[in-house]
Amino acid sequence: MRMNILYSDSEKKYKSCSAEELLQDDFFISSKVHPTEATEAFWHKLLMNGNVDIESYRFACHFIESVQVRSEEIREEEKKALWEKIELHNRHFREKRSRRHRLFYLLAGTSVAAFVAFALLLFRDGTLAGDTPDTLGSIENVKPPDTEAEHIQLVLTDEEAVSLEGKEAEIAYGDSGIRINRQATELKKERTENEIAYNQLIVPKGKRSRLILADSTQIWVNACTRVVYPVAFGKERREIYVDGEVCLDVTHRDDCPFVVKTKTFSAEVLGTSFNLTAYGNDREQNLVLVSGSVRIHMDNREDVLLAPSEMFTSINGVTQIRTVHAEDYISWTAGIYQYESETLRVILKRLSRYYGQEIVCDPQVAGLKCSGKLDLKDELGVVLEGIALTAPVHYRYNYETHLITNK
Fold it and tell me: Which of 211, 287, 340, 349 has its CA 20 to 30 A from that of 3?
C-alpha cells in the first residue's frame, strides 16, 4: 500500500472497516506505530466525518498500544509470553466491552496472528520503542502487572495486588504497618536482613491517590501513573521510580538524600517540594521546583541545579530551564488546573488522563495557546463547554468521545 493512494480513496476504503481489518492494514499500523502530524490529522478527519467506525478505530488503537516490545532478538519463550499477553489482553478487553456491543467483537484469531507477526518483525528490526538501558538499577526493572486494572492498585512484595475502589485513595506507611484510607490493614510484609523489597502504586485513568512513605514524605499521584518504592528505605539513600505525574513534599534529611528516578533522568533532593511529569510514552518530561533545591542528573551530561520556580524540561534528550509560576503546576492536587500560554493539545491531553475519558481534538486548533483556570471537580463536559466559551472552538459529545473542533 502507498500513502498517496490511501489518502485519495480513504473515505471509501475505511468507512466500513472492522477492527480486524484495521489491524491487517499496513498504513493503519504504520501510522500508529510511527505517528506524524499528517497521519494524526488524516485519521482525525475520518473520525470527524464519520468515515471510519469509531469503535473499531478505538479498539484497534488500544490493541496496538497494549503491545510493548524491545529491539533485540526475541527468544522462543518471549514469543510465547508475548502471544499469551496479547491473547489475554484482547480477551479481557473484548469481554469488558461486549456487554454494550456484543456483535462488534467477533474478531477472528487471524487479527491476533497478523499483528503478532508484525510485532515480531518490528522486534527484530528494532523499530518499536521501549528499550531498557543496561545501566538501569533494580528499582527501574520492577515490572508492572501484566494486565491493566480499572481501580487503583497497591502491588505488594509478593506480587499480591490490592484493588482500591473509588476515584481517590490514601496509602500511608508507618511503624505499625499500612493504613489505607485511614484504616489500618494487615498488609505489612516482613523482609529479611539486607533484602530490598519493593511495592508499587498504580493509578489508572480518571483516578488519583496520595502516598505517605515511611519517612513521612508525601506524594500526590495523578492519573496514569506508576510509583515504585522500597518497603523500607536504606540508611544512606532514599530512592523511588516514577512513570507518570507526581507532586512530592520530601521530608528533609541531611544524611540521606531522596532520589526520584524516571525513564529519562534522576533528581536528587534533601528536603524539597516539586512537581514531576514523566510519562514514559511522552516525548516531553519536566520537573518544576516549588521550594528547596534539586539536582538533575542525566547520563553523559553535567548535573543541573534548579532554583525555586524553575522548570527543567527534556524533549527527546534536548533540555532547557525556564522560570514559571510553580503554583500552576501543583494546582491539580487541589482539584484545580491552572495554565498560562499552554497549547490546547496539552490541556486536553491532561484532562483526558485526569478524567479517564477520550478527547479528540481537531489538529487545526490543537496549537492554540490558552490561559485560564479550570475546576476539576466539575464534570468533563462542563469543563470542555467552558473552554469552548473562551476559545474559538466548538465542543460536542459523540459515541463516548468528546470532540473539540474548529469553530
Answer: 349
Residue keyed to cell 510514552: 281
Instruction: Render pLDDT for 275-305 as a digit per residue (tens, 0 to 9).
Output: 999 998 888 999 999 999 999 999 878 899 9
**How far, in whole angstroms, is CA 91 from its chain's centroid?**
22
CA 397 to chain centre: 24
DSSP 115-129: HHHHHHHHHHHT-S-
Q: How far apart are CA 320 and CA 312, in angstroms?
A: 6
Amino acid residing at 178: I
**Is the pTM above the cut of 0.70?**
no
The grid coordinates listed for 361 are 481534538
- The answer to whether residues 314 and 284 touch, using CB atoms and an 8 Å cutoff, is yes
> b/e string for 127-148 if b means 16 or more Cβ within 10 A?
ebeeeeeeeeeebbeeeeeeee
- 3-class DSSP state for residue 130? coil
Tens digits of residue pLDDT in 158-180:
677 888 988 899 999 887 778 88
Q: Can you list the pairs that 372-376 forms with residues at least 24 positions away whose Cβ atoms lie under 8 Å? A: 372/338, 372/339, 373/331, 373/336, 373/337, 373/338, 373/339, 374/336, 374/337, 374/338, 375/335, 375/336, 376/332, 376/335, 376/336, 376/337
pLDDT digits (tens, 9 = 90+) for 11-50: 567 877 887 788 778 788 888 877 887 787 788 778 777 7
Length in residues, the chain: 407
Measuring CA to CA, which residue among 398, 352, 362 is closest to residue 41?
362
